[in-house]
Amino acid sequence: MASEALLVDPIINATGEVRLPGSKSISNRVLLLSSLATGRTSLQGLLDADDTQVMRSALIQLGVPIVERIEQHKLLVDVTGQDGRFPNAQASLFMGNAGTAIRPLTAALAILGGEYELHGVARMHERPIRDLVEGLQGIGAKVDYLGQDGYPPIRLHSGYIDQEQTVRVRGDVSSQYLTALLMALPLLRPSKPIRIEVIGELISKPYIEITMNLMTKFGVQVENHDWQAFMIPAHQRGDHGPYMSPGHLLVEGDASSASYFLALGALGHGPVKVMGVGRESIQGDVAFANVLSMMGANVTQGADWIEVRGVDTENGRLRAIEMDCTAIPDAAMTLAVLGLFATGTTKLTGIGSWRVKETDRIAAMVCELSKFGAVVQAGEDYLSVTPPQHWLFPKGGVDTYDDHRMAMCFSLAAFGPHPFYINDPACVSKTFPQYFEVWHSLLVPRASKK
């Protein structure tokens, strides 16, 4: 059920400090790896939001003990690993609309064997999974579609997995398919390396780097052959699985969520400082800070923090850019809304993956940016935004399409001249339930200007 619309009043300034919630991408990966490892893993900073709750619930249903505790005033989530297998060989799992949950779980369960059904909300049943399924079927996995071919819901059966076969998967729709295979194939404990070949161009490479970085922390190193092939190492067969718990793991702040606050610091003069990501982050979206610098923002960084203090251009406005956003598709959405305020036309390319996300984000952006008077053009994998000559009041409010990032991005339109409504703001619960409370705490309303 949609939540009550949020009235957004015009603002002129934003300042303060934000401690970011944990990264969704890291949180769901380490939940799965911890569950399949040998030993107990204590996770600190784990994201508590819809997508991670979906993953936690599914793992618990599969027989993985997951408990919370407080140690030295810090919340830890303890996951007791199951030595490379799941205790429950049958389950019907609800995946909500969490791509970072359904895709790696599909691969792991198909490799391990058992009888499972995976389903989700209506939008999940419109998000493709064919490329992952065909990669798994190519080595013997048994996967059936329960609705439309190529999409969830799906049913998995036990089958013989041929370790001699090269695994092939497309890389140009979603990097999550490759991530799923990388994490699942070591569960075979192969006697010789397994080769994965990527068909076409691999998008979102930084997310694959996150996957390999975390797998290394759990004791499995993958060979990357120029992003076109990956080798899963051989492991001795035995009682234990390939993954070994690191004991304790700190989850970074979410770099995609950081983009909204960094943009606040640019548009609202700042300083706005985000804590939890910085120069040492393993997330690709941390590069958003460098893009802001290219646009004229005053950005400084430390190991685990980034601060933005307004804009240094002659006219005090951000410069429009043309950029290939293949590596930072989520943070690129923030750039699209910043196009409302930049001098010139902002053009974002390499964003074809937007069309298969929580909604068709290209179509959604065209519709919602146009409501403010922007001139917006789009194609299969690009979007261009020319700021309004005359700002419009968006009648009916900004629609969010049950997409958390649409809601968070368009909070930045508060720097325009008109109040407006954001419809269904509670959709941010997918990754950042407290987003609007944190956002409000940084704002100075226009009426309070001296």
CATH architectural arrangement of the largest domain:
Alpha-beta prism
Shape: globular
Measured between the Cα atoms of the first and last residue, the distance is 41 Å
What characterizes the major β-sheet? Answer: 5 strands, mixed
Which class do the helix and strand fractions yield?
A: alpha+beta
What number is the mean pLDDT?
A: 95
Number of helices: 12
In terms of quaternary structure, the protein is single chain
CATH topology of the largest domain: UDP-n-acetylglucosamine1-carboxyvinyl-transferase, Chain
Helical content class: 25-40%
**CATH H-tier superfamily of the largest domain:** Enolpyruvate transferase domain
Strand order of the main beta sheet, please?
Answer: 16-17-15-2-23
Q: How many domains in all?
A: 2
- CATH uppermost class of the largest domain: Alpha Beta
Q: Which parts are unreliable, with pLDDT below 50 for 5 consecutive residues or more?
A: none
Our Rg estimate from Cα atoms comes to: 22 Å
Proportion of β residues? 15-25%
Name some characteristics of this structure.
450 residues; alpha+beta; UDP-n-acetylglucosamine1-carboxyvinyl-transferase, Chain; 5-stranded mixed sheet; 12 helices; 27% helix; globular
Break the fold down into its secondary structure elements and pairings.
Elements: E1 6-8, E2 11-19, H1 24-36, E3 40-44, H2 50-61, E4 66-71, E5 74-80, E6 90-94, H3 99-112, E7 115-119, H4 130-137, E8 142-145, E9 154-157, E10 167-170, H5 176-184, E11 194-199, H6 205-217, E12 223-225, E13 229-232, E14 248-250, H7 255-267, E15 269-275, H8 288-294, E16 297-301, E17 305-311, E18 322-324, H9 329-338, E19 346-349, H10 361-370, E20 375-378, E21 382-386, H11 404-410, E22 420-422, H12 435-441, E23 443-445
Parallel strand pairs: 2-15, 3-14, 6-7, 10-11, 18-19
Antiparallel strand pairs: 1-22, 2-23, 3-5, 4-5, 7-9, 8-9, 11-13, 12-13, 15-17, 16-17, 19-21, 20-21
Helix pairs in contact: 1-2, 1-3, 1-6, 2-3, 3-5, 4-5, 5-6, 7-9, 9-11
